[in-house]
Amino acid sequence: METEAVAAHEPQESAVATKKVFVKTYGCQMNVYDSQRMSDALAADGYTATESIDEADLVLLNTCHIREKAAEKVYSVLGRLRDMKAVRAREGREMMVGVTGCVAQAEGSEILRRSSAVDLVVGPQTYHRLPEVVRKARAGERIVETEYAIEDKFEHLPQPKRADVARRGVTAFLTVQEGCDKFCTFCVVPYTRGSEVSRPVAQIVTEAEKLAGAGVREVTLLGQNVNAWHGEGPDGTEWGLGRLLFRLAEIPGIARLRYTTSHPRDMDDELIAAHRDLEILMPYLHLPVQSGSDRILKAMNRQHQAAEYLKLLERIRSIRPDIAISGDFIVGFPGESDADFDDTMRLVEEVRYASAYSFKYSPRPGTPGAEMDGHVPEDVKDERLQRLQALLTRQQNEFAASLVGKSFQTLIEKRGRQDDQLVGRSPWLQPVIVDESAGGIGDIVNVRITRLGTNSLYGEAA
Ligand code: SAH
Ligand code: SF4
Ligand code: F3S
C-alpha cells in the first residue's frame, strides 16, 4: 500500500492518525506504566491509542508470566486475534499483533511458533526498539527482540507531550527500579525482568516534575524491589529510596507519594524515617511476606525469618502508628505442611492486614521451586487458600469499618458512576465516594466517612 511506504520513511507525516494501537495490559503496575510508555513511543510513528480493538491497526498484548494461568491466557487471546486477523484480511484491512511483557521475554520465538497471529515479540528490556520493530514487522518480517539491554530502556524514546499527560488523571506511576536479584525460588521475575537496575536520580526527578506540571498530584514509585533502589545523589553521596522520597517531596504540585513493591530485607532506616518525617508519604506499605513458616521462607529463599518480619513491622508501626500494612501470600509451596500453613495463619492474625493478595503456588518452568519435592495437591491448596482469604477479607473489612466516623484527606480522582458523585482515594488506597460539591478533580479534601460500601467508603466533606 502506498501510504505504508510513506509511513515507513516519514514517521512524523503519518501522525495524521491513520493508525491506531490497542494495548491490552496484564499483570502488575509496571506493565501498566510500560504500556503507557510504549503508546507514547509509538505516537511519534503516527499511532494514536485506541480503547477499541475493532479499529486497531496494531494490537499489543503486554503480558504477565507470574503464574501459569496468566501465561496461558495469552494463547487463548491470540487464538481469538488470529480469527479477527483472518476477517480483517478478507476486508483488506491490516491488523498487526505484538506480544510484549514477561511472556514475551520468557518464551520468545516459541510464541511465533505457537501462534501464527503474532507479528512481533518484544521483551521488557527492549522497548526502546519497539518503534523500529513495528516498522520492520509492517514490512513483512516476523521479529523476536528479547535481548537484555544495558541502557535505560526508555531513555531514548520520545517523551510524552504535556497535553497527553494532562489527559491521564491526577495519579501516576513512575518506574524507578526494574528487575530483581533476589531469586525467590517460586518466582519468574528475575528471569523475565533481568537483574536489578536503578534509574538515575536526575531522570526520576525530571519525570516527576513533568507529571506534576501536567497536574498529577499523587506519584507511585514502582520497582519489583523498589526499596532496593539506590543511586548517586546530586551531592555525590549514595542515595537510597528514603532520600529519593525526600527529594521528590520538594517538587511543587506533588501532594502524595507511594512506592511499591518492597522486600522486607531492604527496609532501611532512612526509608523508615521517611514514614515518620514525610507527611506526603502515604501511610500505606505493601510488604509481602509470602509465608509465616520459617521452613517455607527458607525454601522460598526469602532470606529472612517470620520473627524478623514481625519485628520490622513493629518498628515501622511504632514511628507511624496509622500505617496500613498490605501483603502477598503463597499457599501450597512445595513441602508446605498443615503446621507450616498454620504458621501463616498465625502470622496474619498477629499482623492484622489492611489488604492482601493471596495465591496458590503455581510451578513455573525454570525456577528452582518447580523442581522441588513435596508438591502440594490442588485440593489442599484450594482449601488453604479459602481459609487464608476468609481471614484476610475479615481483616480488610475490619480495617475499613474502623474508618467510619473518622476524617482524613482524600484525593479526588474522577467522576463517579452516578452523575452527582466523585470518587476519591483514601491515604490507604480505598475508593471514597463523595458528593460532587466536595471539590474538584485533583483537589485534596478533608472527608468524614459516613458508611461502608462493598469495596469503597462513603463520605462527606468535613
Ligand atoms: N517483587 C515482589 C513480588 C512480585 S510478584 C516481592 O518481592 O514480593 C507478585 C506476587 O505474586 C508475589 O508477591 C507472590 O505472592 C506471587 N507469586 C509470584 N510467583 C508466584 C508463583 N509461582 N505462584 C504463585 N504466586 C506467585
Ligand atoms: Fe520475585 Fe522474590 Fe524478586 Fe519479588 S523479590 S520479584 S518475589 S524473586
Ligand atoms: Fe507479571 Fe512480569 Fe509483572 S511476570 S507481575 S508482568 S513483572
From TrEMBL:
Residues at which [4Fe-4S] cluster 2 binds: 180, 184, 187
Compartments where found: Cytoplasm
Sorted UniProt keywords: 4Fe-4S, Cytoplasm, Iron, Iron-sulfur, Metal-binding, S-adenosyl-L-methionine, Transferase, tRNA processing
Any Gene Ontology CC annotation: cytosol
Every Radical SAM core domain range: 166-398
Cofactor(s) of this protein: [4Fe-4S] cluster
Record-linked NCBIfam families: miaB-methiolase, MiaB/RimO family radical SAM methylthiotransferase
Function: Catalyzes the methylthiolation of N6-(dimethylallyl)adenosine (i(6)A), leading to the formation of 2-methylthio-N6-(dimethylallyl)adenosine (ms(2)i(6)A) at position 37 in tRNAs that read codons beginning with uridine.
Family membership noted in the UniProt record: Belongs to the methylthiotransferase family. MiaB subfamily.
Subunit structure of this chain's protein: Monomer.
Protein name, entry field: tRNA-2-methylthio-N(6)-dimethylallyladenosine synthase
Organism (species): Mesorhizobium denitrificans
